[in-house]
Amino acid sequence: MYRPIACLVDQHAAWVVPLAGLICWVSLHTALRLNRHSLDTVGMGRWVWLVVASFAAGAGIWCTHFIGMLGYDPGFTIGYRLDGTLLSLAASVLSVLAAFGASRARDRMAGSLGAGLILGLGVAAMHGVGTLSLQVPGTLAFDRPLALAAVVVGCALAAAGFAIHGGRARPHTRLVVASVLTASVAAMHFTAMAALEIVPDLMPVETGAILPRLVLAAGITTVMLSILGFGVLALFADRTLRANAALRASQTALRVSEERLALAVDTDGLWDLTLTTGAMWLSDRWQTMLGYAPGELPGRIETWQSLVHPEEAATLGRLLDEHLTGRSAVFECEHRLRRRDGGWCWVLARGKVVSRDGPGEGGRPVRMVGLQVDTTLRREAERRIAHMALHDALTGLPNRVLFRERLGGRLAGTRDRRGGVAVLACDLDRFKAVNDTYGHPAGDALLKVVADRLRGVVRGADTIARLGGDEFAIILDGIDDRRCVEGIARRLIDAVERPVPLGGVVAGVGISIGIALANGETDADDLFKKADIALYRAKADGRNTFRHYVQGMDEALTRRARLERDLHAALGGTGGLTMHYQPILRSADGTLCGFEALMRWHHPEFGLVPPSEFIPLAEESGRIVALGAFALHEACRAAARWPEGLRVAVNVSALQLRQPGLEQTVLAALAGARLPAARLEIEITESILVEDDPVSLSCLQRLKALGVRIALDDFGTGYSSLSYLRRFPFDRIKIDRSFIRDIADPDTAAIVGAVVGMAAHFGATVTAEGVETQAQREAVRLLACAEMQGYLFGRPVPAREAEDAIGRHAGRKAA
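RE: above sequence
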């Protein structure tokens, strides 16, 4: 540290350091400004500015070095070789050019380090070449550690300067960057000079191509003037660029303003009214907005007034008068104008008085200008939004909000009109099965057909609403008695139950209706609640029917809601659901063939709930699939403990067959119990065949392919059953108990015999259900029914008791 200071103080003139530092700082600051112009320029100009900036910085650094050399006094005369001096100038300029290029790298840190390293090594090279060009009466020697320190310090400060520069130095940071880079150059120069030692000798000094100190000083002055010229150039370039940028911004703003004005003229209708004469200029857009050709309408205020809709004419006149008399700051009125084709369009007119015949606001208005905007589309959009808020998007029917509003209005006005009000709560039957089987698009199409059919039944004064899903509600006004409501309800049922074609398939749904008649003390919510209670009763009584609300239905609804909630809990594991098993015997010898699995639910409060009550609840609430899976798994586990020859029969509803996954549920139940598929029998009802559901039939065929037996249950209950035996190869046909009850009748016996013969023709065995007496048992045997089932042989019992019954049968057979 002492040696560079000693060199600076003892071997350099006092004026050297400030002059060299000033020249270096000015040249670097100028170069940074020129480099900024390079970054802001495109095309070839970018490279021209870069070269000029590099020359300004490189030449300034070179001047700094040789000013320092001019002030260097080693104690004897020194000279400078021309070639080395010029080569050092080239090295300085090229190193700055490379450093500026590296500083533009995307990675700012890498660019700064690279630029600093390049500039530091370039300045070191310039210094080395310049030093070696010295002509002295002696030999040049270097302190290598100190020379290396000079290079390291110079590179570090240069990297710091470029890091602050960041590729695009702002005006206030250029001062700092120029200062740091000047420090880099000065530190390297004076440290390197301290590392230089001249050892005198007697060798003569070479005089050819040697620059005298005076010539070198003149060259430095010339380069400095060039740098000052570049500085002035940079200053004018700055001002020119700013002026051009401001001009471009003004031109852009003017163009945008002109575009906005043109858009306003093309979009809005302009008008200019002379109040003293009634003359009114109407722009082309004002007239074309109404379907008129430009210039077709007379330019008079009467023209405007004659086109205003009669319902808004008075309002328009009042608002215009308020503005002309100073009671409003701006005239504004939304009204309708008659179009050329006779229609009406909504417009928003705005205007303001711009001229008066006296000073200030006290003068009489003379001229008024304004614009007119077409608001028809906005009005139509608002109307559609309001309609959507009160109507169902799918069917176009009123929604729940509008239904309640209209019902409240009807009830409030019943005392002033003849007749009463009735509310019909409607719910589609079997809609969920259609939606799940054929998809939501088919369900939506079905809902639209149902809505149209409902519209075709009710009267014009009545209201039909869709409350959501497959729920509808109807308000009947002017009702005289119950018979009038019942007649409409029957027509609604007849209209809805007609088959609906849906893209190649035919779907069938029904409708259940609950009816509540209003009285003078009933409000809207209470009346609809009663209709809803009656609807639940209609669904519980078989569906596709209607029921009136009567006192006491509330209790039934409460029980139903409680059962639905508790059924979900029972399936979740709280208990109460069990399987009971009723024996099936061979008619010829009374041998046990198997059992039919029947579900039982013991409710903790209501006791034993019959399947006829909780099975429909499970179907309506969507829990029939879980309930069916429980039955299959329990029945298969029980049958696995029986002897191999015994089978188990499980009932499956039509809704279960339509749901995806039944085949996987059956496979899981068989695999979990390790029960052969041939020992499981699935029982279905005739309704599946009557509905001609391809999804259900396909599921049955896949189950049969697994080896599961398929039985047709309750054969003969209201359908032309014999015609369906060809539809599917059933393994078993179970004759309904109603035939067995009347089997003593010859005609009934003949029907049973015909069924047995037909079943034998199709390869199916026959089971007689409901055998309760010895006489019925004997008749069944004589008619060749293969199997029989009924209370005569045993009631449904839990699995443990069924196993005991198996043991008793086995004991009797052995005896």
